[in-house]
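User: Can you recover a sequence for this backbone? Please restate the input before giving your answer.

Assistant: Of course. Working from this structure:
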């Protein structure tokens, strides 16, 4: 999958790398030619232009091969690096684009830290290993084959001795393989857990501080880190022993070659040039074997890394587009839930026969106890999940038949926990329309009742909001989110009201902004405030994944006990808020009294 787009470059680099290896394997034979020719000349006391010419020819050939090999090797380095970076880019981007479509189940299983690890660590490690195997391992094997052939032409017995000693490092490495692979896999899982915890801690620093758990968390993290480092150290010990074994085997081979070769030279059965060539081959043969041994940990880690990359790539997607999905035409705003059933991870039904038809432009408030299924309605409407039974229809079209991005582009979503990025106010408002001119951004902010407070900030629209928008209050964040949704000019608005108490000014500003915004758009509000509920055209009372009440405030107070209970509960919360304006309570109090 990642090899094919680079196939030509990989092929070219591989051929060049093989050519460089074969040239290197020929070098000792050329050295032998030069030395033996020199020896012959000196023994025969020959002189003259013919001898000089022959000598110059051999030396020039030797130099040319050496220079060619150097240039080729430099080219291989550059080209293999380009292949590696290309593959790394493709791997990273494939994993990254998969992240946004992963099911929430997979997100939960792998965790944020694990997913980041797959993108930041595992993907580059896999690409590096591929490049090492393709452009180092294969050429080294080619070198070894040519070198073995070259040596066998010089002397059989010495070749046999060298070749007997040559595999010793590989044998030692293989013996270490199982224990090292197990350690690597364990360590990999361990890093993922450390990263996940670390990410969680950073996100939840407020909670950590609130419970004064900083030191405990720090100690826990450092203890794990220490364990991981100890494990790495044990692995390095084993790797070092393997390297020493390889070095000793090479030393033994040199001694054997010098002893056997020296004897043969004295007896006149081997030339000095051949002995030198043999010594060259010992260095040449053992260096690549040593490198293959060194390559082994890289490929071993890469195999584990690749496993985790493919674990992400093969993971199930959440409600992907159907093969024949079509783009969604402009939405009028008729939304129908047709006997919708849905449950998370085979758990009990979060929605159980949810059945409602909403007319274009209607404002529907969803109310119900916590866990009754209100947010699930939003998720199904945005097709974060598909229903297990029944259908969700937009303007008569089954949501499953549409390209979901084209639907979501026409939705304005204001979540309860507004996510702001550490960027300017203007950039945050323009998140869904990055190219929007400043006037439009300001118009959206005005419509969202945010302009005034923005202008009071030190740098106005260019004020940085801090990570997660920490520099702003809850009500301000929500108004930024409304402006953000405004700018998209959506046909359908999904508004999840903040449960947290907003200050009175913010609450009034948010309510006013919402009232202006929902005009002419189909609007769903998960409502927690009586003012919002009263404003809605229609209230759906949700309980245990079903609609148990559908109507206006007054009707429901009388007809729906669940609704009456909720209103009563809300009133007691409001009453406990000292800053609540008295008239808001008075308006609702008689109904609540009736309901109680
Ligand atoms: P509400 O928004 O009304 O508080 P939700 O729609 O969030 O309710 O939840 C409905 C039910 O589904 C609850 O029982 C809740 O525990 C469960 N639920 C919600 N989200 C998930 C999830 N991601 N995984 C498993 N269960 C969930």
């Amino acid at each position: 999958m990642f090899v094919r787009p680079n196939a030509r470059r990989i092929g070219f680099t591989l051929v060049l790398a093989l050519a460089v290896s074969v040239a290197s394997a020929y070098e000792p034979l050329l050295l032998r030619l030069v030395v033996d020719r020199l020896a012959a000349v000196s023994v025969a006391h020959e002189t003259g232009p013919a001898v000089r010419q022959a000598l110059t020819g051999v030396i020039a050939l030797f130099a040319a091969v050496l220079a060619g090999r150097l240039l080729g090797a430099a080219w291989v380095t550059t080209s293999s690096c380009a292949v590696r970076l290309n593959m790394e880019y493709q791997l990273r981007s494939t994993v990254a684009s998969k992240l946004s479509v992963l099911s929430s189940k997979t997100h939960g299983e792998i965790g944020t830290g694990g997913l980041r690890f797959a993108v930041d660590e595992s993907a580059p490690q896999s690409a590096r290993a591929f490049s090492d195997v393709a452009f180092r391992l294969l050429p080294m094997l080619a070198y070894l084959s040519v070198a073995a052939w070259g040596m066998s032409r010089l002397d059989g017995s010495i070749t046999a001795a060298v070749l007997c000693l040559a595999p010793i490092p590989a044998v030692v490495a293989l013996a270490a393989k199982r224990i090292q692979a197990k350690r690597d896999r364990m360590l990999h899982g361990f890093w993922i857990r450390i990263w996940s915890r670390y990410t969680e801690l950073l996100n939840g620093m407020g909670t950590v501080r609130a419970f004064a758990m900083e030191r405990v968390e720090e100690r826990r993290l450092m203890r794990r880190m220490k364990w991981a480092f100890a494990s790495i150290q044990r692995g390095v010990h084993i790797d070092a022993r393997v390297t020493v074994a390889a070095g000793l085997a090479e030393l033994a081979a040199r001694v054997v070659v010098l002893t056997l070769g020296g004897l043969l030279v004295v007896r006149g059965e081997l030339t000095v040039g051949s002995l030198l060539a043999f010594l060259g081959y010992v260095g040449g043969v053992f260096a690549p074997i040593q490198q293959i041994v060194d390559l082994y940990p890289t490929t071993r880690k890469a195999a584990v890394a690749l496993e985790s990359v493919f674990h992400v790539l093969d993971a199930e997607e959440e409600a992907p587009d159907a093969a024949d999905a079509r783009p969604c035409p402009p939405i009028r705003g008729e939304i129908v839930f047709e006997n919708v059933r849905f449950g998370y991870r085979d758990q009990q039904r979060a929605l159980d026969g949810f059945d409602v038809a909403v007319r274009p432009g209607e404002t529907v408030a969803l109310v119900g106890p916590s866990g009754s299924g209100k947010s699930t309605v939003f998720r199904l409407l945005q097709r974060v999940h598909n229903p297990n039974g029944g259908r969700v229809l937009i303007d008569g079209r089954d949501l499953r038949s549409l390209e979901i991005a084209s639907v979501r582009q026409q939705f304005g979503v204001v979540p309860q926990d507004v996510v702001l990025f550490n960027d300017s106010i203007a950039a945050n408002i323009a998140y869904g329309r990055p190219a929007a001119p400043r006037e439009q951004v300001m118009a959206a902010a005005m419509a969202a009742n945010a302009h005034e407070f923005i202008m009071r900030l030190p740098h106005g629209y260019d004020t940085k909001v801090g990570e997660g928008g920490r520099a702003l209050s809850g009500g301000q964040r929500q108004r930024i989110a409304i402006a953000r949704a405004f700018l998209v000019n959506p046909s359908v608005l999904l508004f999840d009201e903040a449960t947290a108490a907003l200050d009175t000014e913010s609450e009034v500003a948010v309510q006013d902004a919402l009232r202006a915004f929902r005009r002419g758009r189909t609007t769903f509000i998960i409502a927690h405030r009586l003012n919002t509920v009263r404003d809605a055209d229609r209230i759906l009372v949700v309980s245990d994944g079903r609609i148990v009440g559908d109507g206006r405030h007054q009707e429901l107070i009388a007809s729906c006990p669940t609704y009456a209970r909720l209103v009563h509960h809300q009133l007691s919360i409001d009453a406990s808020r000292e800053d609540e304006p008295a008239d808001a309570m008075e308006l609702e109090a008689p109904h609540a009294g009736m309901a109680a």
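That completes the design. Residues 100 and 317 are 9 Å apart (CA to CA).
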